[in-house]
Amino acid sequence: MTTTEKPASLISTLPGHYYTDPQVFALEQAHVFEDMWFCVVRSGDLPTPGSFKKVQVGRESVLVVRSRDGGLRAFLNVCRHRGAQICTEDSGAVKRAFQCPYHAWTYDLEGKLIAAPNLTKMPDIDRVEYGLVPVHLREWLGYAWVCLAKEPPSFEDDVVGAIGERLGDVESIDRWELDSLTVGRRITYDVKANWKLIIENFMECYHCATIHPELTEVLPEFADGYAAQFFVGHGAEFGEEVQGFTVDGTEGFDKLPGVAEDQDRRYYAITVRPTVFVNLVPDHVIFHRMFPVAEDRTIVECDWLYSRDVVESGRDVSRSVELFHRVNEQDFAACERTQPAMSSRAYANGGVLVPSEHHIGAFHEWLTQRLSG
Fold first, then answer.
1. Which UniProt keywords apply (predicted)?
2. SS3 state at 359
């Protein structure tokens, strides 16, 4: 096959095997998911001491728990005795401790080994040294972020900085007060596609006029195909006749108290590498967390966050949920249509990006640099 130089309008994508090769996915687990700050759980989902959630981060099962002092802690979900998983349930609550179901080694909420059969006959065992292996954890925007790296990268640079870079300053995100919002709806999607296809889809709007009729009705500039949401500080403006960020453009809820007037009637989208999307509109926030589980499968957990008053009053959030739920279903269906072609000989050398997609090339460069390091 002969190759020709591409016109300036087109740049190359990643080759197809980046989306299908288990060895590439293993490298991503080691150098991306396990080496970076990874958003795992909404803090409010763990309300009381002993509340826990088991999450998969790269190749590791991680246990996130509310400790007795009220803070969150994270540990590898592995008993130090023979390696059994401490928690097999995805979530739940214990009263005072976690007990391994294999040999009954027992750990308190701070990870310390506190009991085991015949432990008193083994006085040389250091109960801290043989406690659960801790994982770095930070809370921000009402979520717990963990990092498995021995020396984690700067949270301020990689996570906080990503939002500041998009909005123009870090303080802007504070106006939505995400940590005080409440989950009004959560939908989990099981997407039969590589996680990078989902990232790339979110980063461009070339497809918006084709598959997102409801979204482009609310945000007319998206019909032009340019990902205006990635311009620093820019929020896509609602259409003139649109009253709210709802499936039919009708009125939503009152603007969140901290949102500035110049941010009203606008939509802001933010990507935080590797697997978080934050979508800001005046009256709520849509927060996506992705959990890549295989080279061709990704679990996406999406939270719709509203003021506590809206949720506790029982007000109907279905019209605002329905808008982005349709967007999600449309996007994920497109990614699932794309995944089979990643192993086609037609895509062996990859595809191309048109000018409105060229910024995806920076994501590809970032990824290949991480994998080669």
1. 2Fe-2S, Iron, Iron-sulfur, Metal-binding, Oxidoreductase
2. coil
What does pTM read for this prediction? 0.95
What is the CATH code for 1-35+156-373? 3.90.380.10
Beta strand 236-237 with 266-272 is antiparallel
Superfamily of 37-152 according to CATH: Rieske [2Fe-2S] iron-sulphur domain (2.102.10.10)
Please state, in angstroms and as integers, the Cα–Cα distance from residue 252 to each residue in 62, 181, 284, 312, following that order: 37, 16, 9, 16
Question: Tell me: the pLDDT tens digits for 46-100?
Answer: 999 999 999 999 999 999 999 999 999 999 999 999 999 999 999 999 999 999 9
- Each residue's pLDDT tens digit, 150-169: 999 999 999 999 999 999 99
Alpha-carbon span 297 to 192, nearest angstrom = 4
Question: CB within 8 A of 316, min separation 6: which ones?
Answer: none
Q: What is the pLDDT of residue 228?
A: 55
Per-residue model confidence (pLDDT) at position 125: 87
Q: How many CA atoms lie within 13 A of 239 on its CB side?
A: 18
For residues 346 and 342, give the distance between their C-alpha atoms in angstroms, rounded to a whole number: 8
Domain 1-35+156-373 shares a fold with domain 37-152:
no
Alpha-carbon span 17 to 341, nearest angstrom: 10
3-class secondary structure per residue, 201-220: HHHCCCCHHHHCHHHHHHCH
For the chain, which residues make up each domain, given as ranges? Answer: 1-35+156-373, 37-152
Q: pLDDT tens digits, residue range 247-263? A: 999 999 999 999 999 99
pLDDT of residue 153: 97
* Residue 53 to residue 67: CA distance in whole angstroms: 12
Question: Which residue spans within the chain are E strands per DSSP?
Answer: 11-12, 38-42, 51-57, 60-66, 72-76, 91-93, 97-99, 106-108, 113-115, 134-140, 143-147, 182-191, 236-237, 266-272, 276-281, 284-294, 297-306, 352-353
pLDDT of residue 4: 61
Report yes or no: 299 and 190 within 8 Å, Cβ to Cβ.
Answer: yes
Of 210, 172, 187, 230, whose CA–CA distance to 321 is shortest?
187
Could you tell me whether strands 106-108 and 97-99 are parallel, antiparallel, or unpaired per DSSP bridges?
Answer: antiparallel
**Planar angle of CA 60, 143, 105, nearest 5 degrees:** 40
